[in-house]
Write a structure and sequence with these properties.
mainly alpha, 14 helices, elongated, Leucine-rich Repeat Variant, 225 residues
């Protein structure tokens, strides 16, 4: 069991390191880049070239760009740092056309088993789609995911969306065994800012086992006065 847990931690450490590279690695953007050239680079055998090509699509929101990003994000065989970058950029477009794909990726058990960061980054991308009941329902399921990364990202995303419909789901995890989850839920309830969040925040402020969490709940409650 200890060896299995150590392997799991090593895998997550590698995933985190590669994710940081995928997010922060600079793209070689130049004035001469065209969508045709970028599309050609997306077919390159070197994943770093493909990643740089995806980065060049950042800040664009035209239909061709969205379609290219969807193709990359939707390709299971694509190396996951490239997929993640495409998912992030799709979220930034907030294009309704991309929502079915992002929901599909979030719920793809096989893909997320290989790289849990795909699911957590997809949760963050979904946070850009406000007012979508399906998004709230999907992220609510993510709150109870087996991966802590996914749970935290889903909670943060619900807070960013700011829809009061998420309050019952967030309230359910205020007694969670994870301190990070409880703190995230308190923060999300504070961001949502609906009066319905007051009773559960009062409960946390009075009954949580950790002073840190109780104090955070008290701070959140000040927003409602």
């Amino acid at each position: 069991m200890r060896e299995e847990e150590n392997n799991r931690l090593l895998r997550h450490g590698f995933i985190l390191a590669m994710l940081i590279f995928a997010v922060l690695a600079p793209g070689n953007i130049s004035a001469g880049d065209t969508l045709q050239q970028i599309e050609k680079e997306l077919q390159d055998r070197d994943w770093q070239v493909r990643l740089a090509a995806v980065e060049k699509l950042g800040g664009r929101n035209d239909e061709t760009t969205v379609e290219l990003l969807m193709k990359v994000a939707g390709t299971r065989s694509e190396y996951w740092p490239v997929q993640i970058k495409a998912i992030q950029l799709l979220g930034e477009t907030a294009n309704p056309k991309t929502l079915p794909l992002l929901l599909l990726i979030f719920n793809d058990t096989f893909r997320n088993w290989e790289c849990p960061s795909i699911k957590s980054q997809t949760a963050r991308a979904l946070a850009n789609f406000k007012g979508e009941e399906k998004v709230i329902e999907t992220l609510a399921k993510g709150i109870n995911d087996r991966e802590l990364l996914t749970r935290e990202a889903s909670i943060q995303a619900l807070g960013k969306i700011g829809d009061p419909r998420a309050i019952p789901y967030l309230t359910e995890v205020l007694r969670d065994g994870s301190v990070a989850v409880r703190l995230g839920a308190v923060e999300a309830l504070e961001i949502i800012g609906d009066p319905l969040a007051v009773p559960p925040l009062h409960y946390v402020a009075e009954h949580d086992s950790l002073p840190l969490v109780r104090e955070r709940a008290l701070t959140a409650l000040k927003k409602f006065h």
